[in-house]
Specification:
23% of the residues lie in helices and 18% in strands. It has 564 residues and is α+β, with helices and mostly antiparallel strands. This is FAD-dependent oxidoreductase 2 FAD-binding domain-containing protein.
Length: 564
Amino acid sequence: MQTMDRRMFIKGGIGAAAGTALLAVAGCAPSATASGKLADTANDELPADLKESDFDFSIVEREPIAEFAAEETYDIVVVGAGCAGVPAVLTAVEEGAKVACLQKEAVVSANGNGCSFVAKEHSTPAGIKRWRSDWARLNDWRINNDLFDYYVEYAEEAVPWVISQGRSVGIEPIEFLTDSSIRYDDGSVVAVCDATQASNQDLMTALAQKAADGGATFYYETPCVQLVQEEDGTITGAIGKQKDGTYVKLTATKGVVLAAGDYMNNESMVDRNMRDASMFPLCLVNHTGDGHILGILAGGRMAPLGHARQIHTNYIGPFMFYPFLALDVNGKRFCNETIPMSSLNISMSATYKPEDRGIHYRIFDSKTEGAVEGIPGVPPVALVGEGSAWMDPETVVSGNTLEELCEAAGIPVQEGVASIERYNELCAKGTDDDFGVAGSDMAAIDTPPFFCIKGDVGISGINAGIMVDDRYRVTDGEGNPIPGLYAAGIQAGNPCGGINWNMPGGFSNAHIFTAGRYTVIHALTGDMTPSNPASFDSIADSFIGEDGGYAWDSPACATAISVW
């Protein structure tokens, strides 16, 4: 990561072409003097949501740029080529618009692989609202109802559209499921469809190429360093900095969409907004909050705390659902093991030091039946070993004795064995006197060989950005939309609102896809109707299960949310 020098505020001004001025100071639009230059802003302070140190980690430039190697005009300018930016660009092409994208990296940069949507025709209104309420409860009632409803309303078209676009370039999802659906005790239903790609990186790379073939212009290795803003506050373009240090000015006649990712690599912003999680490893690089800063400098505001972070471990797949005994780096048990993966960091932050870097250990044995009551699927021992589809052999170790296991895993042997033996005593007693796990969720570790997952916890995303309205338009301090400026993806709003990301599986990518697509439709038309809509019906057959139907039609349909 390259550290940028701090920049001074403007102490003078430059000519404003065609009634516009380069964005210089947040919170208010630049005002023109009688001579047509920007007013002196040397004494202005940064907005409350920014600090001087934020710019040490960002490519955003605050001194107005007056000379350009090229000036071009487009209908739409997108900042960022990821899971929001690429659908935005491809939608603009499909809608017949002229579009350009400024991308900081040399290639497309996309993350994740899952996405979901609600099949509204197969759901009931009460089921959808109860489902939303259940998710709100899991997030201390802090979810943004407008953004959740946006996902319900438009992901049903946007996700099938992304899948169909992928198929058009030879990329097929690897899994289709409906088992996140719920049939409530009052008869209300929410029909949830989940699709998994092998890699969103591969998918978005292929879709970006399709957009380029359709006429879109991608400026790779050309980060957006500044927005262009008129005197009345309207955003009318973006400025990119090319590899050779020259600048290109892209005028946007319909709108600019910020889709530049999160801020996990901006140490100043992390320290201020999520210090409790700063000890955990970061899964991404070069995510320095550039879009956040650009939006705030345009008059936007940062989403209020908390900022929901996505927590992932290296033992995903079925292992997310097993409450294995958890030991810390010192071989001590440290938590109630039924904590969902997405919240494991909360317990760890109270007992771990930054140098521990999220390392912990999950222990299980070779029982083949009834290992843990009430957990469906194959026993965990069947998922490890040579040829395992779920576990990296370097992550799972085994031993024929508890001492051998601890030695192989790197757990302090004396402490680790003592912790396991204490856990086995509690299992025999049937009650957890130490951390309160229900006896039905505990299984003694007594059948060799024994196994240990050498786990880690990392931050894969910070789902909080600049505030947006119910059309993903960036809003100012009064809640009014800033004309011409949208935000999409992980840097838009705060749909979860909680400390950690406890939202529907696949929601993250789906709301990112959806906002990327529909911000462009709204910017171009003022409406929310695509010219060539996709639909659930167009891909419905892919979701039919082995029994010939959907999970929401089955008597075995889930009756409550499963959080992982």
